[in-house]
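Example S7 (structure tokens).
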């Protein structure tokens, strides 16, 4: 059970959180270190996800960075060198907490998530970039799988995440060369949904968030979580899982969207599913 007790309990130090018009803006806040992920961010992000899960006003979560950087990846000093030299139990706990927020929780998070990549995005940052449901960036952002350039492989699940988002040739090229690329290339290879001029980035995110907020949140949650689960299933398993989930969603949905949608289309003839959403109360 979560210990979360609301926004007021958040430290607002390594991670800033502001909820406005249904959007929770979650900002990694170590601009002087280009938002490199240190233990402070790791433990605070776990707390933030706990709190936002229960925060009714937070309908869509946007993850971004302070200053000119989304995140320069894992902090080479505070995440690697120092913990590697310390107590192995603490090292293991830190790894667990990091994979916790960066993908284990984020991928299956019950609310929609958008990565707003506002600048530098390297190495470990690809984990939470790929774990977010959607991603928007600025054309002049810089992405890089730089691990090869300092003698490690893209570990954690960076390689796996990239291989699932991006095709083989592009994945292999960027993993093997460490070459950087810009927002437009990130969009072209499928790493982000949209790359736009910097001045339009926030508005683009708000437009997408608004669209998501208009959907039935119970069904939206089942759609996004279901997508991640079925990717690793066989066809038969996926069919069985999705059949169960469609029943569960109909049963649990407090607004009974499926009944309403059906009735508005078949009985009232008041809407066309192909042209928009059913009318929610
Ligand atoms: N780990 C630790 N410290 C970092 C990191 C990092 N990943 N990235 C930046 N910093 C620190 C710098 O050491 C510097 O600290 P200092 O002011 O105490 O010297 C400060 O942040 C600012 O960095 P600069 O390099 O001065 O900033 P600049 O704007 O010139 O360059 C850039 C930004 C390109 C992001 C550069 O900092 C960089 O290459 N960082 C490493 C990126 C990387 O390869 N990340 C992958 C890490 S491995 C992984 O995630 C698995």
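Recovered sequence:
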């Amino acid at each position: 059970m979560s210990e979360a007790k609301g926004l007021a309990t958040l430290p607002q130090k390594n991670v800033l959180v502001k909820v406005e018009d249904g959007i929770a803006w979650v900002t990694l806040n170590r601009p002087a270190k280009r938002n490199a992920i240190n233990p402070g961010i790791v433990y605070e992000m776990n707390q933030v996800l706990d709190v936002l899960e229960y925060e009714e006003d937070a309908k869509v979560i946007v993850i971004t960075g302070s200053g000119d950087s989304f995140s320069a990846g894992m902090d080479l000093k505070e995440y690697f060198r120092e913990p590697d030299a310390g107590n192995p139990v603490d090292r293991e706990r830190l790894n667990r907490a990091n994979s916790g927020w960066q993908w284990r929780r984020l991928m299956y998070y019950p609310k929609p998530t958008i990565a707003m990549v506002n600048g530098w995005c390297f190495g470990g940052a690809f984990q939470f970039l790929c774990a977010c449901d959607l991603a928007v960036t600025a054309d002049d952002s810089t992405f890089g799988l730089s691990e090869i350039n300092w003698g490690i492989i893209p570990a954690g699940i960076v390689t796996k995440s990239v291989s699932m988002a991006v095709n083989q040739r592009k994945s292999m090229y960027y993993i093997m060369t460490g070459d950087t690329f810009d927002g437009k290339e990130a969009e072209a290879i499928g790493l982000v949904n949209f790359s736009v001029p910097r001045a339009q980035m926030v508005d683009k995110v708000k437009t997408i968030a608004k669209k998501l907020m208009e959907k039935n949140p119970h069904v939206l949650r089942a759609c996004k979580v279901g997508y991640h689960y079925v990717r690793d299933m066989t066809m038969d398993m996926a069919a069985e899982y999705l059949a169960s989930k469609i029943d569960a969603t109909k049963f649990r949905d407090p607004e009974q969207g499926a009944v309403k949608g059906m009735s508005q289309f078949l009985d009232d003839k008041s809407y066309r599913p192909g042209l928009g959403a059913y009318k929610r109360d």
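Notes on this example. The longest helix spans residues 235-252.
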